User: What shape does this take?
Amino acid sequence: MANAVLASVDGRIGPPAEATISILDEGLLRGDGAFEVIKLYGGHPFRLAAHVDRLGRSAAAIELEFERTALEAEIEALLESGEAPEGCLRLVVTRGGRRVLTLEELPPFAESVAVALVELSPSEILSGVKSLSYAANMQATRIAARRGAGEAVYVRPDGIVLEAPTSSIFWVDAGGALRTPALDVGILDSITRDVILDGLDVEEGAFGRDSLLGAREAFLASTNREVQPVAAVDDADLEVVGGQGAAEAKRVLAEAVQSERVASATA
Assistant: This one.
């Protein structure tokens, strides 16, 4: 779990332990809200505008209004109020009208992870929405843990591979093609996924579980996880762990981060 080091609630900055919202806020009572998590590199939030844009799309999809201008000002104030950790910035908007921001330190991720396939029927109503309703995602990870894996990967009832609870999945098939599920199968429009798609030749589509089970190599990709090689799928060890696919994805992501930091420093 991440460790929050500084918080802002509607622009009031202070220690996380002193940050409060009403216990009647439906963001708490019903998980009714939206959020984003943005990786910090040298205190710089990577792809900030893209994350705030996606927060706006998520909020619009659940008919939740928030003041974007106020949120952006609060982000700037929070980042300037102290030394940001080499972690992440979390943005939360709730049905009760609260804007909650936290700067968080991140624990290290393992060099690789075993995954278990968990069946999921995606909700068309919340398709592509980064909602606060994450109980199902966390339960999927617990199901995977009971099966001896470090993370779950969702598959639809018809066997189509989707994503992990908090990351995208990529794999190199037996023929050497790099694959990832297409957005229209019912997955989140991941910003890290977009970076990899922009930099590499990736085949998007509706791929069955057998494609992933027969993969030579696979990796997860997300804001905080960055690129994490997969060691096994449903107890079957992969032929390659941390091979060329993951290495190229890491290179593309690192180049995008560096390019943005240079552009930001010279702006």
